[in-house]
Amino acid sequence: MINIALPKGRLGEKVYKLFAASGYEFPEILDNNRKLIFENQELNLRCFWVKPFDVPVYVERGAADIGAAGKDILLERNPDVYELLDLKTGFCRMAVAAKNDFVDDPEKVLRVATEFPNISQNYYSSLGREIDIITLRGSLELAPVLGLSDVIVDIVETGTTLKQNNLKVLNFITDLSARLIANKSAYKFKSEKINEIIRRLNP
Ligand code: PRP
User: Fold this and answer.
1) Of the four, 10, 50, 89, 177, which is 20 to 30 A from 158 by CA?
2) Which protein residue has the closest C-alpha to ligand 1 atom 15?
3) Taking the model in full, what pTM does it have?
């Protein structure tokens, strides 16, 4: 049996559609219910929805053999897993954004609101800039508007959320997309089956 961790939410639905189009279907999975685990006994596969941020934890510790995670989460958590495939879906970018009229003072410590403290710290360390990180869980766009932070480090997909809150991109940090990851020992012992999944998924 291969156990697959999928990220609950928008990205997970896109990834699941890739699995389904590759012949890996799980009855009921897209039904609007609270069920978390689904089995395909014919293919000997089991998949489950977990919070996107938790996918690398399930995979690293072997509760899942493989999983799909956003590159943002992999960069942030730096799990000890194999990154096997760019699933070429969920394209977006990590960016620094601020109010439209923001003017940076490089002499000052920059207050950065983010869900990604490690990505933010690495980025500003590479620039030699001192920052004060304010870690939040979502709705980051509020932080500069309310004066909680100077900038945000967040995911930008269409740019609509920034625009509607009178914010602008200052810098792009990196491109992002969904990746297929594997537990290291599972990849060793179940390599045939996992490679078959990669072959079929490979866009
Ligand atoms: C993400 C991100 C932005 C938004 C960007 O939030 O944090 O708020 O999407 O998308 P856009 O550029 O297409 O507008 P998400 O909807 O995942 O929810 P969150 O605010 O709870 O993180």
Assistant:
1) 50
2) 138
3) 0.95
What's the gap in Å between 26 CA and the centre of ligand 1? 28
Contacts of 60 (CB under 8 A, 6+ apart): 79, 80, 81, 183
pLDDT digits (tens, 9 = 90+) for 7-32: 999 999 999 999 999 999 998 898 87
| Probe target for ligand 1 pocket from 161, 169, 172, 176, with the most ligand atoms within 8 Å of CB | 161
Q: CATH classification of 92-175, choosing from 3.65.10.10, 3.90.180.10, 3.10.450.350, 3.40.190.10?
A: 3.40.190.10
